[in-house]
Amino acid sequence: MRHLLGIAGWRRDELEALLDRAQEHLPGGPEASHVLRGKVVANLFFEDSTRTRSSFEVAARRLGADVLNWSHAGSSVSKGETLLDTARNIEAMGPAVIVIRHRSSGAPHLVARHVKCAVVNAGDGAHEHPSQALLDAFTLRQRWGRLDGRTVLIVGDVLHSRVARSNLVCLKALGARVVLCAPPTLLPPGLEEMGGEVTHHLDAVLPQADAVMCLRLQTERMSEAFLPSQREYSRLFGLTPARVERMKADAPVLHPGPINRGVELSPVVADGPRSVILEQVANGVAVRRAILEVCAS
Amino acid sequence: MTSVLFQRARVIDPRNGVDGIRDVLVTDGRVAQVSEAQLTAPKDARVVDATGKWVVPGFIDLHVHLREPGEEGKETVLTGCRAAVAGGFTGVVAMPNTKVVNDSALVTELVLSRARDAALCHVYPAGAITKGLKGEELSEAGELIGAGCVALTDDGRPVMNAALMRRVLQYATLFDVPVMVHEEDLTLSAGGAMHEGATSTRLGLRGIPASAEVAMVARDLILLEETKGRLHVAHVSCEGSVRLIREAKKRGLRVTCEVAPHHFTLDDRAVGDYDTHAKMAPPLRGDGDVKALREALVDGTVDAIATDHAPHGVSDKQVEFEKGINGIVGLETALGLTLALVHEGVLTPRRAVELLSEGPARVFGLPGGHLAPGSPADITVVSPGEEWTVDAHRFYSRSRNTPFHGRTLKGRVTQTWVGGRCVFEDGQLKESR
To answer: pTM here?
Structure first.
C-alpha cells in the first residue's frame, strides 16, 4: 500500500515504473487484470469535477473494483461534518483506496495521517494534481520516448495551479526542462527552488518549447485584481494561431481542461492538429489504473 | 516574619547591574538583601541551596491568552496561571480578545477576581482599544485602566482604520499607557495561511507577504511621531519591521516591541507537510527574518520576549491547514527556547534574563523585573544546563498545541516564587487554595 499525495517524494524510477505499467493498460494491451476485484475504491470529491472523477471511476471498474462515489453536494459536509469525520466514516466502509479531491491544499495529507487505507490525491487546492501530471508526462513520453532534454512551457495562472506544480515536479524528475510563463501577479515566489525557470514574455520563449501546456484561467482572478481583464490576458498570454506559428513544427499543445475557449486557448488551436487534449483524457484512464494498482497493492 | 535565603546563586539582575554569585535574603515577600558575602539564615528561614542555579527576577509575559471568560475549554485564568508559573513567569498580561471581550471594567474585574482565586502569579489585564474589537468605536479606556488594565490592545486583530489608530494614540497619552498593536494589513494578508515564500509555493498555500506587517508598522510609527504617543508592537516577525523600529527608537520615538520564541526559533519550513501546529499570526517567516529577529534581540531593538500563548483545542488544529486556527501555547517552553539562544552564543545570560523580566516590566511599567532590596520577591530559579524533552501531554496549560512537542531543550525552571511564596518547585505546583 502506498499513498500518492503528490509527485514530490516519488523517485524517477518509481515514476517511470508507474508510467510503464500504464502503457500496458492502453487499449489493445494485455487483457485487463482484475486485481481490485472485491475491493472498494472510494471517490471523495469535495470539489466539483467531471473529468477526474469519471476517469478514476472507469479506471477502478476496469480493475474490477466496486466504486463508492461520494460528493460534497447535499452531503454531511453541509451539516458541519469535519473532513476527518467524513474520511473516517468512509474508511469504515472498508475501501482499499480513497481518492480525494479537495479545495484546501494538504487535505489529502490530513486524511492520510488518520486512515489506514491508501490515499490518492485527485487535486488539492493549489498544491498538487499528481494523476494529471502523470498523464501529461505519459502523453509526452508517447511522442518522445524520453523526456530528457526536452523543454516544456507551462503558460498561465501558475499561482493558483496545482497542475503547474505537479507538472513542474514530475517533468523535472523525468529529466525535462520546465519554463513557466505568467503575468507577474500570477507567479508565486520560489519556483526556481523547485527547478523551474520563469518568464513573463510568451513570445520570446515559444520558439524554444518542445511542448506547450496552457492552464485554465479562472474568472475570479479579475475581481481579485490579479489581472485587468480576460481580453488583456488573452492578448498577452493566450495561445492563438499566430502564436502557434512561432512554435516548433512538431510541438504539441496540452491543456488539463476544462478549457476557457478564447481565453487561454483559441478554439482553432484547441481543435487543431497540435492539440493532444483528447489524447490526454484517454491516457488518463490508463495512468489512473496504474496508480490504483500501485497504491492498492 | 517569614524568610527565605537563597545561597550561592548566580544572581542575574540586569537593572541593578548584578551578575555574580550572591546570597539573596527574602523577608516578608520582599527582597531584603543581595550579598556577595554569605549571609546567615535567620531563625525559621527556609534555606535554598542554589549552587549552580540562576536566581533571576521573575519572568513577565506581555502577551498571553487566558481564554476566560468564554473559552474555558481551552484555558482558564487558573490553568493559564499554572502554565505561567511552571514556565517561570510571575506575571502575565492577559489579552482582551476573550469571548466576552474585555472592553469594560466588568470583564477586567472578573479576570482579576479569577486571578486572585488562582493565587499563583500576577495577572495584568489589557483592555480592548475598540468596543468588541470591532475597530469602530473606542472603548472606555479610563474605566478599563481604572479597573486595572495596564495596556490597550485589539490583539488578534489590527486597527485597520488609520484615523481611529491616530486618535487612540492621542487619547492614550491621557493615561500614559502603551497602545499594543497586532500589525497586519488585512487587505495584504487576505486568504493567506502562511508566510509567502518558497514553502508556500511548494505547498500551494496562499502566502502572507511580510509587507502585511511592515506596512502597518510604518503607518503606526508615522502616527506615533505625530501624536507623541506610546506604541508597543506585538509579536514582531519580520526584518522590515525590526529595521523600522530600530530607526524609530534612534529618533527617540516612544516605541517598544516584543518577539515570540517561535519566531526566533522556527522559520516557515517548519510548516512541513501542513502542520497546523506551525500556524499562527503573524506566520513563521523566512530564515532571513529569523536572523534579523535574533540580531534585534541582541542589539536592544527588541524590549521583551513574549510568548503569545494561544491555547486551542485539538479540533481547532486537526483540520485542513487553511481552516486551522492560528496560535500555539508558549508559556512552558519560553525559557528553554530563549536559553537555546544563550547556548548557541547568540545572547548573553544577562540579556536573556533582561528580555524575560526587566524588559517587559519596563515596557508596561509593571512592578518586579529586578531584585533591588525592597522590591517584590518575584523570583525565578533556573537550572540553565538541565536538559529535558517537551511533552505537551504534561503541560499545565489546558491545551497542547505546540510545534515543540518532542524537542529537547536545555534549561529549566526549578522554582518560581511570587511575593516571597514558592508557587512552583521541581515540576510541582504549590497551590495554597
So the answer is: 0.96
